[in-house]
Amino acid sequence: MTVTEIQPQTVRAHELFGDFWFNSEPMLVSAMRGRVILVEFWDYTCINCLHALPYIKEWSKKYEEYGLVVIGVHIPKFPFGKNPEVVQKAIERYGITYPVVTDNDGTIAARYGNRSWPTVHLIDKHGFIRYQNSGEGNYTTTERVLQTLLYDAGAEDDLPLLMEPLREEDRAGAICYRPTPELFAGYLKGSIGNVEGFSPESVVEYGDPEFYVEDRIYAVGNWLNDRNSLCHREDEPGSIILNYHALEVNAVVKPEGERDSDVTVSHDDQYLTEENKGDDIQIDGEGRSFVVISEPRMYNLVKNPRYGEHVLKLTTQSEGFALYSFTFVSSVIPELISNN
Q1: Is 2 exposed, middle or buried (0-12, 13-18, 19+ CB in 10 A)?
Q2: Who is most buried in 89, 99, 199, 200, counting CB within 10 A?
Q3: H-run or E-run covering 146
Q4: Using one digit for the tens of pLDDT, what is the confidence trace for 69-91?
Q5: CB 71 within 8 A of CB 65
Q6: What angle do the packed helices 139-152 and 47-63 form, to 10 degrees?
Q7: Is residue 234 very low, low, confident or very high in pLDDT (cuts 50, 70, 90)?
Q8: pTM above 0.90, yes or no
Q9: What is the torsional sign of CA 14, 101, 69, 147?
Q10: Taking the CB of residue 275, how many other CB atoms lie within 10 A of it?
Q11: Which residues pair with residue 272 across a beta bridge?
């Protein structure tokens, strides 16, 4: 995460010439002189972007009357994110009402020098980029700079109070545990732990090593090694296993073949319960915990009561279950909360 304080008027904001526009006709930055513009680069499968989203939505709502324009630039992390129908569904799911433009080939991101999700740029009334924040956090600083630019643009009334942090992790000075880093499943950036390794564009039969090193994904059964994913093949059961440290676990999954297929989810050799299941987990009458894969998106699998080390296992018989990545959420170190 990097943050830059308010910058001098030296860098002009580029136009947002993208692929598809949602919630608006195409907009020109140069046609909005006199208004403050917030441009956020995001992806709908990115957990960091989803943590930032409530702040962006609230700022759009409460500062619109003072002249703020919010525009989201969607840069897909995975190929399926280039599909406008998929992006439209995500926009509707997360209740985004401000304009969004897709940047499928990364042209806009390159012109703005973006290398991470999410990144916020604040553009002043003259069309200059005055502030940039990459990654989660610094919401209070960002909003304070936003208000400064709005006053400079002519806001005469007192602006609303700054937002309170929505999560303990968002508070200034919060110190969090180190979670397992994002793990990708495809052979381009993947972290597979099996001795069989990757065999690009081939189906590999993986054995269960029964010992799992952290920061690695382990596959069991027949899996197609794609550039961006591991895709289950054959009708025999296949599993994905990982050892992790975190409070929450999310998985980005796409149904390549059968839709609405369920994937059994076990945790430390037991089914998940009401105490530790994620938002997308269901529990049947026999206590089996599972997730239904209906569309390409991020699925919230685990919400532990507290940060810790665990072993997660996904088991499926559905041919076409494609895993793209795992992301992990940390928590504030409890004994340090009262000291900050």
Answers
A1: exposed
A2: 99
A3: helix 139-152
A4: 999 999 999 999 999 999 999 99
A5: no
A6: 30
A7: confident
A8: yes
A9: negative
A10: 8
A11: none
